[in-house]
Design a protein that fits this description.
It comes from Coralloluteibacterium stylophorae. With about 1150 residues, the protein is of the alpha/beta class. It is about 30% helix and about 25% strand. Helix 5 packs across helix 6 and helix 13 packs across helix 14.
Length: about 1150
């Protein structure tokens, strides 16, 4: 595909219609009156007068939306302005009504899409029973049921545990250990009015709704069914909770009253401020086995789907899930809630017996099958004493506390380990049992030996903590089995630091020592130098080691830094009252601590934070793009840098970054603009440092030109001993081929495309630049991965934004020294696309996909974490170059013209060749008979047919063209339009063929893309209206025939012009382009010409460049008698084969 030195522009964001500002619409803010008969509104809408208020294009879009099921609910109502129709869409709720003059008015929450309104009105043409009935409340509670400032709703609450009916189980054959019981709170409800809170906009202050005269009521009065429901609840048993009186739901009639209100008004749980509950599906009550830590299983009852739901008992059973939030009814056997209490869980050895019972008819067969546990594994290990150390604070003021007593006492909780099982000394259980790694493990305790070990500890100076506290008369929080160290009975027990010699002695004798956080068991020591060591690894990575000297030994700082990050008390940001030289105590090992300057620690942690978080449990491996980070922490934290390999100097070179600009290499046939020279310098910098990158300039800024200049420079530097490989969409193959030949003829270029490409693989080594496409990667994988390339260039890299696609996988397998990605839209939908492209360029830079989601995507997309966004920007910054048109606008011309070259494929290509041979023979016959000067009409007709094949075979009225499906040019146009409109561009599409415009319109309709179409058949009144709508931004795409719209139109709202088929006279194209590029235009205009490569279209373009008079050589419309001004050599060129 051919382009000039500029590339396509990035379209702006699509505008949405604000219905409240559209002509003919009036905005309302409240609903007052009650429902109306749907047939009433249906009759009004069926009259069809409203259709005149909406253009046909909007009606067509509405039909597509309605057919696609975009309307989730539809119902009718009446307000103080007349009848209205309500609809819930995916995005919002909209309402449309008819005034007395049958004109439209609309009401919505926020911006409305006019297409939604069209869909709503069209759907109303169906019979009312197709869309009314169970639509439910459509508008949120603050508009659907508001009176004054208050909103009517139904409040659900729970009462104290409801007494359950008793069931007779005297003859129940199940053993007592298999019986369960569950008490359920009573469901209570109240219809209440709530008002908006003044601060957060929530609902507060619920007041009871009542039918009493003078009580608060809707402006339209109470509907009959609501009044009946309120009356039924008023007669129910009252339940007083604070100032509010609720009603206990004890009968089916009360449940029906509750459901009547819930169907019309919002439902809240506990308080209105919690937000409304949606009605959830009915779920089922069932029994299940709950596993316990010792391998046993407890029989419990609960819900199949919602284990976390709150159960409430009405006449039946109900559930509420406040987190989701939903509520609904519970089915199944409610008697399962009232099985008599259990005495013990089901032990592993009881499971086989229960399984045998379940094979026979009876109650046991109704129970769920327990999880198998297998045989119990019995351990024979000896007990190992364990002392779990903690601090016990002394009371600050107490008459029995003596001067000099420590503030904190050291306390040991004694336990014994039997392999993986632990027994507290205070427990007399003779057997230990745990369910570990899918197996039940059991150990029999050696109680005599445990007592002997305890006595040995008591003889070593330890005392029972409880007895000691009583003897001292101090209220100390100690438990049975805990010990103090009190070598001198006249003094208080030892503080934590006094335990150190004893703990070393006990650890040496085989005891295990564990510490809780409040036991400071380490000694404060001095710190020496801080060190930074770096070691180069394979690829673009290096290992970073941080250390401090402590008592003559090097201590790894990474575990210390990670432990600080896990400490919620560590101040990542300095508080206002922090002292200048504040220190932070850091425990080095079990016996030593150091104090480190907080400012110096922060200088280490802040730039390394993302790396420390992403590589927990590992060393610190960083990408070379983070050279600035390493240099920065070395300076800020004053580290001694050990580097014997010269890596430091290379990292400092990386830190310096690219030079400001680079000159185009010799032999490059284009003048680069300043920002393109900057891009070339950046690409050269990546090559110098061996890095890949993502060139993400806006469309239209010439990414292809910059990369071609870089590849030519690389060849001249001798760094392309093997070819570069370009992978691009099929539609861009021609562009790469043409621009490489045009701008860098010194690059020997090979295209791997088409059915005959198999032989071309043997020619790769004799070329500098190889071009292939994403669709061909999976087919040619074996041939590509066996070769090595100097550079792998991925154009339109958003094509691999799905990392699991075949093309994305093959791209990662192709051996290349460096990788470059080119894309104007590196991020379209979510950050996962960004990860996929960077992972293809520099694998591992952003971690695995799962790590990236945890560290960046989820915090940024779901929580708006600005700090994580900045960290991500810092990580990818050195490898990303993005310039927007606004940034370089002063350097851009007012009009940028580009050629998109398109390859014909398959049947369309075969049809072109067939027609070319036939028409060439016909022309030669005419010329030989009448001479070239008298054969103009025959020549024009022959060329017309070939041009029609290029546009779309359906334009050719020949039998041979009737069965050819598909058009490469139409596909390319639709791809381009999707991209432009997706980013908000306003586009003009010109074609000489009105029939082609009709085919384009059909394709756009099929995609649901709104557009206008102007041809010679368009009445003058509609023509002016279309121009006004386009200029106002209502429709961003305008299809125009070259003859009808080439002159006389002012379309300065357009910033993009597409010439679908080339016209013989370039002046006619220029006039059409000037519809947008004229006085009043305040935006750069981008002009695209779609040309089929190798065809008559390309030949005409080439001849126009070479021969200035060719524009007048062929007669416009074929109606003039002017002689053709070209010779038979030109004619032969026009009919050359593909």
């Amino acid at each position: 595909m051919r382009r000039s030195a500029g590339r396509e522009p990035t379209p702006r964001r699509r505008r949405r219609a604000d219905l409240r500002r559209a002509p003919g619409y009036a905005h309302r803010s409240r609903v007052r009156n009650g429902p109306m008969t749907p047939d009433d509104l249906h009759r009004r809408l069926a009259e069809g007068h409203w259709r005149g208020d909406l253009p046909e294009s909007l009606l067509q879009e509405g039909r597509l939306l309605a057919a696609a099921g975009a309307i989730h609910a539809l119902t009718a109502a009446r307000d103080d302005h007349g009848p209205r129709l309500l609809a819930r869409f995916e995005r919002a709720v909209h309402a449309v009504g008819l005034d007395d003059a049958a004109g439209l008015r609309a009401r919505d929450r926020g911006e409305a899409d006019v297409r939604d309104v069209a869909a709503l009105l069209l759907a109303s043409a169906l019979p009312p029973d197709a869309w009314s009935g169970e639509a439910g409340p459509l508008l949120p509670p603050d508009e659907e049921a508001a009176t004054g400032e208050r909103t009517l709703g139904l409040l659900l609450r729970m009462q104290d545990t409801a007494p359950l009916a008793r069931y007779g189980y005297d003859d129940d054959p199940l053993p007592p250990r298999l019986r369960v019981r569950r008490d359920v709170p009573r469901l209570c409800v109240a219809a209440v009015w709530a008002r908006p809170a003044r601060r957060d906009g929530g609902l507060v202050d619920p007041q009871p709704a009542s039918l009493r005269p003078g009580a608060l009521a809707p402006a339209e009065g109470w509907p009959d069914e609501v009044a009946a429901a309120l009356e039924a609840l008023a007669a129910a048993t009252p339940v007083h909770q604070g100032a509010l009186t609720l009603r206990a739901v004890t009968t089916r009639a009360l449940e029906e009253a509750m459901e009547t209100l819930a169907a019309r008004y919002p439902v809240w749980y506990e308080r209105p401020g919690n937000g409304p509950l949606a009605r959830g599906p009915q779920t089922t009550l069932a029994l299940s086995w709950q596993p316990l830590a010792d391998g046993s299983q407890l029989l419990v009852s609960g819900l199949d789907d919602y284990a976390d739901a709150q159960l409430l008992r009405g006449a039946g059973l109900w559930y509420v899930r406040s987190g989701e939030p939903v509520f609904g009814s519970v089915g199944g056997d409610l008697a399962l809630l009232d099985i008599p209490p259990q005495t013990a869980p089901l032990q592993p050895e009881d499971i086989p017996g229960l399984l045998q019972q379940q094979k026979r008819p009876g109650p046991a067969a109704q129970l769920p099958v327990p999880e198998p546990r297998g045989p119990v594994r019995r351990l024979g290990s000896d007990p190992v004493p364990v002392l779990v150390m903690r601090g016990v604070p002394m009371p600050a003021t107490h008459p029995r506390r003596l001067e000099g007593d420590p503030d904190v006492l050291g306390c040991a909780r004694l336990a014994f380990d039997y392999g993986p099982l632990r027994a507290n000394v205070s427990s007399a259980t003779p057997v230990l049992r745990r369910f570990l790694d899918g197996k039940v493990v059991e150990a029999r305790r050696d109680l005599p030996r445990e007592r002997k070990m305890l006595q040995a500890l008591l003889k070593a100076g330890l005392v029972e903590a409880r007895e000691c506290a009583r003897g001292m008369g101090l209220p100390l929080e100690v438990a049975e089995g805990e010990l103090f160290a009190r070598p001198d009975p006249r003094r208080a027990p030892l503080p934590p630091e006094g335990w150190r010699p004893l703990l070393r002695q006990l650890a040496a004798s085989g005891a295990r020592i564990e510490y809780e956080l409040d036991f400071p068991h380490d000694e404060m020591v001095e710190v020496g130098d801080w060190h930074l060591d770096i070691a180069e690894q394979q690829g673009a990575w290096f290992d970073v080691r941080l250390g401090i000297d402590v008592q003559g030994t090097r201590v790894d700082m990474l575990p210390l830094l990670r432990r600080m990050l896990e400490d919620p008390d560590f101040p990542l940001q300095a508080p206002p009252d922090e002292k200048k030289n504040a220190l932070w105590r850091v425990q080095v090992d079990d016996y030593r601590s150091v104090q480190l300057p907080l400012a110096r620690l922060r200088a280490l942690i802040a730039p390394l934070l993302e790396w420390l978080e992403s590589d927990r449990g590992r060393g610190l491996r960083m990408h070379r793009t983070q050279a600035a980070v390493i240099a920065g922490i070395s300076e800020q934290a004053r580290l001694r840098w050990a580097d014997a390999t010269g890596l430091r100097q290379r990292l400092l070179r990386l830190r310096e970054g690219a030079h400001a600009e680079a000159d185009a290499p010799p032999g490059f046939n284009a003048t680069l603009r300043p920002y393109q020279r900057e891009g070339l310098a950046w690409l050269d910098y990546l090559a110098d440092t061996g890095l890949g990158g993502v060139l993400a300039d806006d469309m239209g800024l010439g990414k292809t030109v910059q990369v071609i200049a870089h590849l030519l420079a690389e060849k001249q530097r001798g760094r392309m001993d093997v070819p570069a490989l370009v992978v691009c969409p099929t539609s861009l193959v021609g562009n790469w081929r043409e621009e490489a030949a045009r701008f860098a003829p010194g690059l020997r270029t090979l295209v791997l495309h088409g059915s005959g490409r198999a032989d071309a693989f043997d020619q790769i080594d004799s070329h500098d630049l190889v071009i292939t496409t994403y669709p061909l990667l999976p087919r040619d994988r074996e041939r590509l991965v066996e070769r090595r390339f100097s550079v792998l260039v991925m154009d339109e890299a958003q094509a691999i934004k799905n990392a699991r696609s075949l093309a994305a996988q093959v791209v990662r397998e192709i051996p290349a020294r460096r990788r470059l990605a080119m894309t104007g839209t590196p991020l379209e939908n979510h950050l996962g696309e960004l990860w996929a492209q960077f992972d293809a360029v520099e694998p591992g830079l952003l971690g695995s996909e799962r790590q990236f989601a945890r560290l960046y995507r989820t915090p940024i997309e779901k929580h708006g974490d600005a700090a994580k966004q900045q960290r991500l920007n810092r990580r990818i910054g050195p490898l990303l170059l993005r310039r927007r048109k606004d940034d370089v606008l002063a350097d851009l011309p007012a009009k940028s013209e580009m050629v998109r070259s398109i390859d014909l494929e398959g049947d369309q290509r075969a049809l072109y060749e067939t027609l070319r041979l036939a028409q060439h023979a016909r022309v030669l016959d005419a010329v030989s008979t009448r001479g070239l000067g008298q054969s103009g009409i025959v020549v024009i007709d022959a060329l017309l047919k070939l041009r029609q094949v290029c546009c779309d075979p359906r334009l050719v009225k020949l039998d041979s063209a009737r069965h050819v499906q598909g058009s490469a040019k139409l596909d390319a146009l639709l791809e381009l339009v999707d991209s432009l409109l997706g980013e908000g561009r306003s586009v003009l599409v010109f074609s000489q063929f009105t029939e082609m415009l009709a085919l384009i319109g059909q394709a756009l309709d099929a995609r649901g893309i709104a557009h206008l179409k102007l041809t010679g058949q368009t009445p003058g009144s509609e023509r002016a209206d279309m121009v006004a709508r386009f200029q106002a931004g209502a429709v961003p795409l305008f299809l125009i025939s070259l003859k009808a719209g080439g002159v006389g139109l002012n379309l300065t709202a357009a910033d993009t012009v597409i010439h679908y088929d080339p016209w013989w006279n370039p002046a006619a194209e220029a006039q059409a382009t000037d519809r947008a590029h004229r006085i009043g235009q305040d935006k750069p205009v981008f002009v695209y010409r779609l040309i089929c490569a190798g065809t008559v279209e390309e030949k005409i373009q080439a001849m126009q460049h070479r021969k200035a008079d060719l524009a007048r050589a062929v007669l416009e419309e074929g109606g003039s008698t002017e002689r053709l001004r070209f010779d038979e050599a030109d004619l032969a060129e026009l009919f050359e084969p593909l």
